[in-house]
Amino acid sequence: MTKDHGLYGPDSVTWRVHADPAMALAGLRALLLQAVHPLAMAGVAQHSDFQEDPWGRLFRTAAYVKVTTFGTTTEATKAAAKVRGVHRRLAGIEPESGQAYRVDDPALLLWVHCCEVESFLSTTTRCGLRLSAADKDAYYAEQVRSAKLIGAAAAPDSVSAMADYFAGMRHELRVTEAARRTVKFVLFPPMPTKVGLTPARPAWTLVAATAGAMLPRWARRMYRLPGLPTTDLAATASGIALRAGLLALPEGIHRRAAQATVDR
C-alpha cells in the first residue's frame, strides 16, 4: 500500500524548508511581520492568549505547521478544519481606526499565510539552507495548498509574485500600540524566576533580536528598528551561527518529525 505522505511528501521543497532548524527563528520573524497589519494584530490581541500563555501559543502554532507539513492528508485536513471553525466565530473592531474585521476574512488569512511562508523561506535560506531559484519558486507553489486549506485568498506561487504581494500591501500597514507591545513582549517574555536567572534569558533575547533584524528593511523602519545594511549582515551572521549550533546536535534532533513520518 502506498504511504500517505500528506500534502507535500518527502521529495518536496516544503519538507526541506520546514525540517530546517532555523524554522524556530523564522516563526518569530513571521509573528513580528504579521503584526504590522493593524487588523491582523487586532485579531491576535483581542482573540488570542498570546500574552497569558506565549509559550503555549508558539508551540501550538509550531504543531499546526508540523501536522500540515509532515502529517497525512487526513491529519492536515482535520487540523485546518479545526482552525477554520475557530476563525468563523471571531470578529472585532481595530481600536485605533475603528475598522471592523473578521478573523476568517480571506484577505487577512492571506496576509498571515504570506508572512509565514515568506519568513520560513527567507530565514532558512539566510541561515544557510541551500535552495536554487527554481526551488524557491517551487516552495511558494507548494504552499498554495496550505493557503487553500486554511481559507486564504489566491496565494502567490513564486518569488516574484510574493514580492509583488508585499509591495501592494504596504499602504495598508501600520504599527499600532498593540504591535509595539507585541515586539516588547517577544523580546522580553515572562519566564519563571528560576529560568530567568539562567542563560535562557539572554539567549532568548539574542534569538528574538535576530528575528527582528531579519525583517525587511521597510518593516524594521516601521518598528523604528535599525534599517541599515549592516543590520542585515549582523542578523545573517547570527542566524548562520544559530543554525550551525542546532545542526551539531546529536542525531539531527530537528529532523526527527520529518523522519518519523517517512518511516511510518
Tell me briefly what this model is.
The chain is mostly helical and about 260 residues long. It has one domain.
Task: Give your account of this protein's structure.
65% of the residues lie in helices and 3% in strands. The radius of gyration is 18 Å and the shape is globular. By secondary structure, it is mostly helical. It has a two-stranded antiparallel sheet. Mean pLDDT is 87; it is low at 252-264.
Layout of helices and strands, plus pairs?
Layout: H1 13-18, H2 23-34, H3 38-47, H4 54-70, H5 73-87, E1 91-94, E2 99-102, H6 106-126, H7 133-150, H8 159-169, H9 177-187, H10 193-196, H11 200-213, H12 217-222, H13 229-247, H14 256-262
Antiparallel strand pairs: 1-2
Helix pairs in contact: 2-6, 2-11, 4-5, 6-7, 11-13
Can you tag this structure with a few keywords?
2 strands, two-stranded antiparallel ribbon, 14 helices, globular, 264 residues, mainly alpha, single chain, disordered C terminus
